[in-house]
Amino acid sequence: MSSDRERTTSHLLLTQEPQRLGSGWLSGTIGAIVGLAGLAAAACLVWPQALTTPALRDHYPANLRTWVVAALAVATALATLSLWLRRKKTLGVVALGSAALGGTLLLFAADLSTPGTTTSLLAVDVFTLNLLLYPAVFLPLERLWPHRDQPTFRAEWWTDLAWFASSALLVQLTTFLVLAPGNAVSGVTASFGANVAALRFVVQFAAIVVVADVAQYWVHRACHQVPFLWRFHAIHHSAEAMDWLAGSRLHVVDALLTRALVFLAIAALGFHLHVIGLYLVFIAAQATFVHANVAWRLRWLEGWLVTPRFHHWHHAKAPIDVNFAVHLPWLDRLFGTFHLPPLAWPEHYGLAAGAKGPRGFWRQLVAPFRRRQPPWS
Ligand SMILES: [Zn+2]
Ligand SMILES: [Zn+2]
Question: Where is the domain boundary, 57, 87, 122?
Fold first, then answer.
């Protein structure tokens, strides 16, 4: 059994270098994340109109520059420690390089004194916040309670980071496109919506989770069963390692279609804006968590809320077409697609046996548009 497990995971390994305390891995990883975030924040200070989102601009502290200087100093110290402790220098060089580049950029930066309301090209500030927040939450969980013994920087890690980055950088455009159909119908159903918005907050929140997940369930199931939609959704299923970052591998067409239709259902019912806001935080956290390489059983919760083990079975090479729900596993029971054998986790993740998806961000982005039938569909 253990040799099976080793064989299963061996192809996922990018490096065999130790990650234990004192190996320079932790200092290098934190240094690289803080350094890259500092570099991105410095770029935001130099080009605030082009790289920061209007909705967030007013909320940044006036002394953001001081915070960025502090972050770059921390990254430099951690990089030095990692370069000293670790034989492989990649993490230390990334941390030191980004801190040096960020420091140079800061020479040209001003404080964010004139925020302005112009729409920016890329939401580099959203990317920076995500880069700090998601690893801070999920890296400790995956290192302390891993289901599989796999390194953080596993094979195809760069590909998934590119999807993670692109979805944050383009968030203004995708939000606009996702909201457009829902906004169009919300006026039509305004009187019904007023009744829904008057309900208690907890009732509305429970209702929004059910409504959103019923919509999500059927859109998701259609993405598996309609060949044209599967072309795009197959990119999400091409990931052969599961962790918090793997969930980011979602083709932009897949993400737009699913989110727009789910928002259409939410907007038609007219939930209060605060309820919608809380739901967006909830889905961002849960959709990331269910992909995480975390061994938690959460037995008492498994029947009611989707857990990593439940969604990992959705990514299994076999059986396919099970566990479509994102929040509520009992929807799969209701619609006959539930699969959760006691205690067991899948052996292999990815497309069905024999099928290989495209490798690398750019190939995955264009492959579904190719006229020739992709080999995985
Ligand atoms: Zn799926
Ligand atoms: Zn998934």
Answer: 122
Q: What is the pLDDT of residues 297-319, one digit of tens each?
A: 888 888 899 999 999 999 999 89
Residue 353, domain extent:
172-369
Q: How far apart are CA 50 and CA 37, in angstroms?
A: 17
Among all ligands shown, which has an atom nearest to the Cα of 247? 2
Taking the CA of 216 as reference, the closest ligand is 1
Measured in angstroms, how far is the CA atom of residue 224 from the centroid of ligand 1?
Answer: 6
| Predicted local confidence at residue 87, as pLDDT | 81
Q: Is 339 helix (H, G, I), strand (E, B) or coil?
A: coil
210 CA distance to ligand 2 centroid (A)?
19
**Cis ω before 181 (30° cut-off from 0):** no
d(CA 208, CA 278): 10
pLDDT at 11: 45
What ligand has the least distance to the C-alpha of 254? Answer: 1
The count of structural domains within the chain is 2
Quickly state the pLDDT bin for 116 (edges 50, 70, 90). low
Q: Ligand 1 centroid to 147 CA: how many Å?
A: 21
The verdict on 186 and 114 lying in the same domain is no
Are residues 302 and 195 part of one domain?
yes
Name the nearest CA neighbour of 134 among 285, 255, 293.
285
Q: For residue 218, how far is its CA from the centre of ligand 1 (angstroms)?
A: 11
Q: How much is the pLDDT for 10?
A: 43
- The answer as to whether 46 is a domain residue is yes
**What average pLDDT score do residues 311-331 get?**
95
The string of pLDDT tens digits covering residues 256-300 is 999 999 999 988 888 888 899 999 999 999 999 999 999 988 888
**Residue 196, pLDDT score:** 78
Q: Does any domain span residue 160?
A: no
> For residue 323, what are the contacts with CB-CB under 8 A and spacing of at least 6?
306, 310, 311, 313, 314, 329, 332, 337, 338, 339, 340
Q: How far apart are alpha carbons 35 and 352 in whole angstroms?
A: 39
- Give DSSP secondary structure letters for 349-360: BSSSTT-----S
